[in-house]
Amino acid sequence: MSAGGYVVAEVLQRRPHPDPATLIGSGKVEEIAGIAASVNADLVLFDHDLSPTQLRNLERLLPCRVLDRTQLILDIFARHARTREGQLQVELAQLQYMLPRLAGRGKQMSQLGGGIGTRGPGETQLETDRRKIQRRIDQVKLDLESVRTVRKQQRQRREAVPVPTVALVGYTNAGKSTLFNTLTGAHVLSSSRMFATLDPKLRAIELPSRRKVLLSDTVGFIRNLPHTLVTSFRATLEEVGQAEVLLHVRDASSTYGEEQKAQVEKVLGELEVLAKPRIEVLNKIDRLPEDERATFVSRTNAHPKSKSAPGAAASVALSALTGEGSDALLLAIDEALKSDPIVEAELRVPQHEGAVLAAIDAGMIVHSREYEGNMVRLSVSGPASLMGRMRRFRTRGK
Asked: What does the pLDDT read at residue 46?
């Protein structure tokens, strides 16, 4: 599993209401304690968030450490944080989670135990640790603000040369990093483990129209993503807010596709980016049976306009692993971009203007080329930003 552990037993419970003291009730606690002892478990993991009281009671009643869902996610994040920014963001989320849960953590913080006759020293140590954690939280927030300032400056430099950004978003392990590598030729880590990507990565790609865009790979989402993580990773997720088009990468082979889609859109709503144009990228079609794959691709291509949300641009079926369908995705991005529109024009350029002719060949599509003495007549289409630099050579434009 992504956190480096192995599952030795699973217990499922259905109950109408959570138990305020232990989440699962005393009978189920005894059952889990017996199972944990019989298999020599080191850890009991709850796929649910535990309140400070529930966590304290469960650690007292069970023969091993107890982790809830948020703690597990934070641990996975900590394992994958590589850059200084990623490490700061994880540390902030961990500290904010830990602060209200200090009291009574006897198994992990032996000095914090209180009780009859020891309340004074216990409270003193507890308050000391709270102050230390709060000071560290304040410092990490300052460090992250510096990161945000640097990122803002980098973004302003990019905006000086208008290159639109396209951001990959999606459920964790949907194949975003693999698609990023396929489209850009980069070699960022792509892994089947959850949250393998924590730090945003930007690479330039060229679209069929010869326009350049920056592709951004972002952290994967998950159901009920802890609010502390959304807050802590806001510096990273700012790339999503600045993007002109979002590529919502989905696992076409997953049986939980609709649920995962809803969870991603929930986080996008928290980031207030649901109105942005989105392209649904139905990835991993190579995992579908051959006959099902052909039907799936034809059905997707027959209904390119996505009905999933306002502003959505299209749906594209592809395999990031094999590259099948990536050309269709680039065309869809081209159609979704509104900034720097494609302009058609006819140009007459002197042959001695070698730099101009090279810029045209590099950044535009040349439909025809004719030589008239020492002049070159070209029929071209290309980005308006580049076409503006060719104004003195234009004979006709539309």
From this structure: 93
